[in-house]
What does this fold into?
Amino acid sequence: MNPELLVRELRDFRLDRRRQATLFEESSDGGGARGATTAPEQGTLDFGGRSIPLITNEFWSRRQRQSHSLHELSYRACFKGELPRFFIERLTKPGDVVLDPFMGRGTTCLEAALLGRIPFGNDVNPLSRVLLEPRLRPPSLEAIRERLDSIGLERVFEEARSGRHQSRSVDENLEVFFHPGTLAQLRVLQERLVHDGADPIDHWIRMVATNRLTGHSPGFFSVRTMPPNQAVRVESQRRLNDKHGLEPPLRDVREIIQRKSASLLRDHDSKTESLLDGVRDRARFLTKDARDLRGVDDRSVRLVVTSPPFIDIVDYAGDNWLRCWFNGIDAEQASESITTPRKIEAWQEFVTDVFRELERCLVPGGWIVFEVGEVRNGTIRLEEHVVPAAIDAGLDVVAIAVHSQEFTKTANCWGVANNSKGTNSNRLVILRRGT
Ligand SMILES: C[S@@+](CC[C@H](N)C(=O)[O-])C[C@H]1O[C@@H](n2cnc3c(N)ncnc32)[C@H](O)[C@@H]1O
It folds into this structure.
């Protein structure tokens, strides 16, 4: 697809009416019907004499669970599977390489694999590979059940339930979140799973357990914490426990892992199995700074879909300390490598260096879709810093697409009137390497 065609496609795109109808029937916020009948806002943006198409549209549904069930793992600042799918379907063909240099939970990589593209991924935090790779090789529920039975969790759970369990060691920070009997089960899992000889079934169980560590419902191992994609900090949790009289309940770790596995595997069938089988051996994953992706060949990537760390709004390492603990990852070290510039100038410099590296990896005519949001209550628009960074790195700026569900004809699509803070819309800068 050439850039003009893509711009036209973004402008003319209309979300499927039938899906919309179902969406609005189910929507509880009552705000959707307006969006369904409103034409998209169009315009251009001027950057140093260049006129860049700006397109606001509703590119995918606000409905939950539109993506494959294998995506359903929480991660701070992740995007929905529909975002990479929209661009992978239009800008690549089966067998092409799709890269995410800041892969997080691996949304782009998993979606690429499910569409028969070769996923390449990278994240400076080793947790990303723990979360993604097992989902490219899902074991059967039967195999997971048998493995869980062989680990001996049931015995530890029963001992705790009958009061026979003696806590081996007390860790005050961990016991803010977990009942001692739950912690004992987690330690058994750690010993069994986090070692070199672990196989794909162990890796799957480790991924699910990592995801179930903390959350707000009995489907998690911990006492009720903030929603699963929020930060978990010892001091704030201690306060929450004190305020609401919360005590970590004993959890059946084996049962929770089985239940979440069944949910993740809900959509997994012979079709997805053969798609994953077809691409897995050519997939490539790195744990590096995105400015240096040695290991990805020059001119090998057709499409990049990614969202970088935003300036200082998300503390990925702080948020993930319990996940790091469970996986034997040094959270301090992971934290030091994660980029969270406080100043916009430093962020723009970082992004310029990343673009130079991505330009090396792209085939001529290859694409980058770079998702950023508004930060600091809309006072900084990151895309205004992405565009000059891209130009400095020698990339063509094709368009800026704003995915928005709430726009109206009179809305200023650059404003954040609908958003109290943080990043509510998806703002996508679309770039291309020259042919
Ligand atoms: C916005 S999140 C990506 C979320 C991802 N799109 C998803 O759907 O899960 C940004 C990611 O960048 C990673 N990161 C931060 N600094 C990095 C760096 N210098 N090099 C590579 N990855 C980095 C963080 O660990 C985090 O996972």
Summary: The first strand starts at residue 42 and ends at 47. Residues 17-40, 407-423 have pLDDT under 50 and may be disordered. The domain at 3-124+269-314+339-432 is CATH 3.40.50.150 (Rossmann fold).
